[in-house]
Amino acid sequence: MPGIAVLLSGSGSNLQALLDAQAAGDLAGEVVLVASDRAQAYGLQRALQAGVAAAYIPLRATRGPQRQQWEQRLADIVACFEPDLIVLAGFMRVLSAAFLERFPNRVINQHPALLPADGGDTVTTTSGLVIPALRGAHVVADALRLGLPVTGCTIHRVTPRVDDGPILARAEVPIQPDDTVESLHERIKAVERRLIVATVNRLLAGE
Ligand code: GAR
């Protein structure tokens, strides 16, 4: 069974979708490791409840040699589990080229907004609307602030450029007039949870 490592920083509802699919026999792989930069990340509890190895790798500095050591430690732990796929499921750290070179073509990321295939600054929706490509850590709030009628989610291969890389899957989510960041993000995540299971299965099937 192909191994999947999941890196996360938060609640881990997407991890749960993978674990649930695995328990139901609907996942073409096995989650072998969950690792986090945050001790309080609820995703670590979800891993332990499912009997999956969980690792917290404390990050003491966001730049300089300590940041590099942290990433090296993370890469060493991930490498021990020899995963076929590494899923960034709400992982709020940017991985360097050194990390990515260690796991070539094996790291994928979930992003709670639509990203373009060409790395550009705009995305064309299925209805032909051209909207800004939202990148960074606050894209759900950005979509509301900009008054967009639609946003969505993207799964892409990870490259050293932030929120960039070949698109694997994308889905649109309409924005309601009374949406808050929480209500919109929850609807996006409901779509993401289905998309991540389908995309992982597709990748592990060699497509
Ligand atoms: C998801 O919406 C994912 O796209 C986003 O974090 C959420 C994790 O939800 N990722 C990023 O923003 C990465 N920059 P979860 O913890 O409930 O799975």
From TrEMBL:
Keyword terms: Purine biosynthesis, Transferase
> What SUPFAM superfamilies would the database entry show?
Formyltransferase
Q: Name one GO cellular component term.
A: cytoplasm
Summarize where (6R)-10-formyltetrahydrofolate binds, as residue positions.
Answer: R67, N109
Kindly list the residues the record flags as site (Raises pKa of active site His): D163
Organism expressing this protein natively: Chloroflexus aurantiacus (strain ATCC 29366 / DSM 635 / J-10-fl)
- Similarity-based family: Belongs to the GART family.
Q: What is this protein called?
A: Phosphoribosylglycinamide formyltransferase
